[in-house]
Amino acid sequence: MYDKIWESHLVRNVSGEPSLIYIDRHLVHEGTSPQAFAGIEAAGRKVRRPDLTFAVMDHSVPTKNRELPLVDDNARLQFEALARNCKNHGVRLFDMFSRNQGIVHIIGPELGITQPGLTIVCGDSHTSTHGAFGALAFGIGTSEVEHVLASQCLQQDRSKTMLVKFNGKRAQGVSSKDLILALIGKIGISGGTGHVIEYGGEAISRLSMDARMTICNMSIEGGARAGMVAPDQTTFEYLEGKPFVPRGREFNFVVDQWMELPSDFGAKFDKTMELDAAQIAPQVTWGTNPGMVTSVTERVPDPNSFRDPDEQKAAVRALEYMALRPGTPIVDISVDRVFIGSCTNSRLEDLRAVARVVRGKHVARSLKAALVVPGSRVVKAKAEAEGLDRILREAGFEWRDAGCSMCIGMNEDVLPAGERSASTSNRNFEGRQGKGSRTHLVSPIMAAAAAIAGHFVDVRDLAVDATE
Amino acid sequence: MYVILPSTRRSNAMQPISKHTGLVMPLDRVNVDTDQMVPKQFLKALTRQGFGRNLFYDWRYLPGEVPNAQFVLNFPRYRGASVLLARANFGCGSSREHAPWALLDYGFRVIIAPSFADIFYNNCFKNGILPITLPDAQVDELFRRVDANEGYQLTADLPNQTVSDTQGLKFHFDIDDFRKTVLLEGLDDIGLTLKHEGEITAFEQRLHPQATVYEAVDFKQ
């Protein structure tokens, strides 16, 4: 599938220089674009295809009352720069007051900007999310943002390919988040470096689009720039009727094209790996990168249990940072705050699953806060129409406006130093959610269950499923 | 090899790099992510300049921006270092180009590691930083030498693709020819791409129906 998309996007392919590939959709946000716009202006260039470029404010937007003046001057200056750049160059912008505003990787698919077979880039490493539709989507740096703005092309070398098959069925209470965390735990955070991962197998084809996006989203946490899932009926049903997807006869026409995308039988991959989905339990990270992860039934590992001396040192350091003792059962770890959100897990299905867990219950008294930050205003509106906000509020959660929020803490949603979170986001790096903060990555229902209990629990005991 | 035209030299002043000799600073940690190089609070910038003082901010400073004497960057013996010796998977995580901007602004021109994360590796070349990949054993040897010799310097010779010291050590490294040329000449890769304007336009017109966007008439922004 990667090869098909790659080959159909080659603008120029001459030996001795990198290939020039065409970019179909360029997503832009306030954090990594100001220097790129400044660059093209300094060079006297223009945005080649503003019609293929979509901008949104997401990284630093407040999730409380947006009508109030922004207190953060630097954030305000970035928003103003994005608005000015979009106006000057004719780029469509979903500003923080747009009804369609949200995290760039949530709104792309939700509006149908993301489609199978497209090349999609964004100055954000979690662009891999869009691969869930059978698109080739990857994160780029600001210089490459400038490159795409100016030329709608990128100089790229062909990646290696890796097939990851999740065979069998997930157990009840096991989410797509657990599948991807288990994979990263196995291959490590650089296991996918230089590769594009294609996910397949029964457990993947049974997943909804929301859940497939969670998988592809975290491909980068395994070192792979892109992750992909072959488009199928689930994909087409999701996309039909979305604002930027053709309708009627034209839709049937594009679906016929999309059906050509899946890898041919017997397609060759540089690496292949198979996992038994039925054997995967809910996952909880214990360290300071997403590969430092274990099953909820396990204990915090002993650094001496790692063979590699560098890994031993890293584990010692991680446990010190996380203030955890080797041998502590994961379920004995208590949390201070719970964050439900981020481009990994803030879609409607995630919020429904959280609501199923917390309905009629209340967050633990020991909890300092529990936040639900919908991935987009569209998700928020749909959730409110279903009454999810009421269920969550009654359970003691704060119901916020859409944005990246506490995943990265660029707005005021910061995890204080020394505090411990159960978070549905994608990175547990030192300081990620706030300087000195301690992050445990989990699925939405695991985070919800931890909010109720005040510590991690095996959500399988609650007999709630992760998906509809 | 590329034919270099004056118009393809980079406008935003990327310094070419050919042969560089400098003091080596060791950073003995695997999987150093870009969140550590430049924490999020410094991403709200509009320019590429001035990130050096924030490099490794959370490791480097104690509360009140007091330098943390325990962190290697603050060791007097490594003051003025321009060659960074690192461990595997250097630069993983976020795509933020602020990370190489900060390294460069601090003064690092060469980074040596057993492996780099893809996006970071790519970002280095856009900013005149030479990332050198060497086998684990050779990196181990360099760590030993830095530790044993105060003032230890390395020379990275890009044309000859070698790393050497004054004690007779010389390692060869591999690098993609095109990337090598871009660094040696300080090329503007956007300018290079735009020279193929004709091919881009032809591609859009002939081959590529996806390069149009459908939009529902009733879509409300």
Can you give a write-up of this model?
The complex is a heterodimer of chains A (468) and B (221). Chain A is an alpha/beta fold. In chain A, 31% of the residues lie in helices and 17% in strands. Chain A is globular. With 221 residues, chain B is an alpha/beta fold. Chain B contains eight helices and nine strands. Mean pLDDT of chain B is 92; it is low at 1-11. At the A-B interface, α2, α3, α5 and α11 of A face α4, α7 and α8 of B.
Low-confidence stretches of chain B: 1-11
Task: State the helical fraction of chain A.
Answer: 25-40%
Residue fraction in strands of chain B = 15-25%
| Mean residue pLDDT of chain A | 96
Radius of gyration of chain A: 21 Å
| Separation, N- and C-terminal Cα atoms of chain B | 48 Å
Side by side, the strands of the main sheet of chain A go 5-4-3-6-7
User: What is the global morphology of chain A?
Assistant: globular
List the helices and strands and how they pair.
The complex is a heterodimer of chains A (468) and B (221).
Chain A: H1 2-8, E1 10-12, E2 19-22, E3 25-29, H2 34-42, E4 53-56, H3 73-89, E5 92-94, H4 104-111, E6 119-122, E7 136-139, H5 142-151, E8 153-156, E9 160-167, H6 176-187, E10 195-200, H7 202-205, H8 209-217, E11 226-229, H9 233-239, H10 249-258, E12 271-276, E13 283-285, E14 293-295, H11 309-322, E15 337-340, H12 348-358, E16 369-372, H13 377-385, H14 388-394, E17 398-399, E18 420-423, E19 438-441, H15 444-453
Parallel strand pairs in A: 3-4, 3-6, 4-5, 6-7, 9-10, 9-12, 10-11, 15-16, 15-18, 16-17, 18-19
Antiparallel strand pairs in A: 1-2, 2-8, 13-14
Helix pairs in contact in A: 2-5, 6-8, 12-15
Chain B: E1 19-26, H1 34-37, H2 57-60, E2 61-62, E3 66-67, E4 83-85, H3 98-106, E5 110-113, H4 118-125, E6 130-133, H5 136-148, E7 153-157, E8 162-164, E9 170-172, H6 177-185, H7 189-194, H8 197-207
Parallel strand pairs in B: 1-4, 4-5, 5-6
Antiparallel strand pairs in B: 1-7, 2-3, 7-8, 8-9
